[in-house]
UniProtKB/TrEMBL annotation:
Domain Tetrapyrrole methylase: 118-162
Keyword DNA-binding set for record: no
Family in the record: Belongs to the precorrin methyltransferase family.
Domain Siroheme synthase central: start-end pairs: 16-42
UniProt record, GO biological process: siroheme biosynthetic process
Gene3D superfamilies per record: Cobalt-precorrin-4 Transmethylase, Domain 1, Sirohaem synthase, dimerisation domain, Siroheme synthase, domain 2
Alphabetized UniProt keyword annotations: Lyase, Multifunctional enzyme, NAD, Oxidoreductase, Phosphoprotein, Porphyrin biosynthesis
Keyword Ubl conjugation among UniProt keywords: no
Pathway terms, separated by semicolons: Porphyrin-containing compound metabolism; siroheme biosynthesis; sirohydrochlorin from precorrin-2: step 1/1
Example GO molecular function: precorrin-2 dehydrogenase activity
Organism: Serratia marcescens
Name of the protein in question: precorrin-2 dehydrogenase
EC number: 1.3.1.76
Amino acid sequence: DDQPRCSFIFPSIIDRSPLVVAVSSSGQAPVLARLLREKLEALLPASLGQMAQVAGRWRGQVKRRLASIGERRRFWEKTFGGRFATLVANGQTAQAERQLEQDLHRFAAGDEGAQGEIALVGAGPGDVGLLTLRGLQVMQQADVVLYDHLVSGEILDLVRRDAERICVGKRAG
């Protein structure tokens, strides 16, 4: 990269069409951007594109059947983390669509999603880098987060922005 002679920069691309992820350092550290893209490439399954295409075909129907944005978010989170995703990953798209239809019917009837879940995410010594991937996923799916004063701001910053946060008061000492 020759910044003085460049008028634009191409980011490193991860293509799971229609999902596309771009990584750029604005020319500051292209090797770092490439290394990050390589790590992300390994983490993102090839089936994400197919999953997004199926979801796109069903998006309107889901919106009609589930009135609130919260219901739809919970439905899609459960769907993308459940049997539907496994079927798509295994190339069983027709079965995945049937699964999605069944899940939507159950969810709209109130048979799914009404029951909450509780998860305990340990923050260990408080280092954000020591959180597990599953712990991070749970924090980003939570509607309500109970925490104490021992939890760092860095860790709380990883919680979904619209989640309700309730401090339960425990302090060091």
